[in-house]
Specification:
single chain; two-stranded antiparallel sheet; mainly alpha; 2 domains; two-stranded antiparallel ribbon; 4% strand; 4 strands
Length: 290
């Protein structure tokens, strides 16, 4: 994942859509199965699609590989809109989350409480973060880093490029699929194909750039910054007697995010994760600089 996170982000919205629609179809066909199981299983469908679109990765790289993932975004978005089977021929063209329970407690649907859904999402996020950390710091992660740094040298020391690259695409797509299922089933409650358009892909790409490529900590920092920023802009200025409209908040948010992207790309390409590491190092030796 570490070498392909930024590239795959150009198609993240589509792969999240695959997970959401897969979870919707599975829970429709098998309503008796626990919804948590289908949320996780939906990631495997997204992983399979990610492998298909990752096949060109052996022949192309860099900007051209990013274009390949962007092609996946447009193709899958077209499928979500034009193929009624994905949303069970619903007249509205949207997927509507049914009520499902866990130990008798509703976790999805209109009757599920926000607290219940929060703890379900938190549990899944903790488990998947632990899994990702072990992957990145293990043999597989070292293979990914070797291919990311110099694929020719990695091949000379015995690393098979195609399986390694496809594994990176598969696992990254798996995470996107689970995230898409959680987004719809645990937050929105329903979703149209427009939810998974290219804007969502770029939105997540901004999180990755600001947080730091190839960093688990940076992913959380980037997401937190982008989601907390509009909240701060909406509630802090009125406390100082400065009225601000919702449309103005949106414009300021995009301006600030754009400025941060340029700033981090120029001054600190490793994003907030690197600043966090520097801050910890300085605090470790404070107040003595040496």
């Amino acid at each position: 994942m570490t070498g392909y996170t930024g590239l795959l982000s150009l198609g993240t919205g589509a792969f999240m859509g695959v997970g959401a629609y897969a979870c919707y179809k599975l829970t429709t066909y098998f309503p008796g199965v626990n919804i948590i199981v289908w949320i996780v299983v939906s990631g495997f469908f997204s992983a399979a699609v990610g492998v298909v679109f990752g096949l060109p990765s052996l022949r192309i790289k860099g900007f051209y590989l990013a274009v390949a993932t962007l092609a996946a975004q447009f193709f899958l978005s077209w499928c979500f809109i034009r193929q009624p089977w994905f949303y069970n021929y619903n007249a509205s063209g949207a997927i509507e989350v049914p009520t499902r329970t866990l130990f008798g407690i509703p976790v999805t649907g209109a009757t599920a409480s926000d607290t219940t859904r929060y703890f379900v999402v938190l549990g899944i996020v903790v488990a998947m973060t632990w899994l990702a950390s072990n992957l990145v710091h293990g043999r597989i992660g070292r293979m990914w880093m070797a291919v990311r740094d110099m694929d020719l040298a990695a091949e000379l020391i015995g690393i098979q490029l195609l399986p390694t690259k496809l594994l990176a695409f598969a696992i990254s797509s798996f995470y996107c699929g689970v995230a898409g299922a959680l987004l719809v089933f645990m937050w929105y409650g329903s979703a149209e194909p427009a939810v998974f358009d290219v804007n969502l892909s770029f939105f997540i790409l901004f999180m990755v750039i600001i947080g730091g490529l190839g960093s688990l900590t940076g992913s959380f920092f980037g997401a937190a910054l982008i989601f907390i920023l509009p909240i701060v802009l909406r509630y802090i200025p009125p406390e100082f007697g400065i009225p601000i409209q919702s449309a103005t908040v949106d414009h300021i948010q995009y301006m600030v995010i754009g400025a941060l992207i340029v700033l981090f790309l120029i001054a600190e390409p490793n994003g907030l994760a690197r600043l966090w590491q520097i801050g910890k190092q300085k605090l470790r030796v404070w107040p003595f600089p040496y």
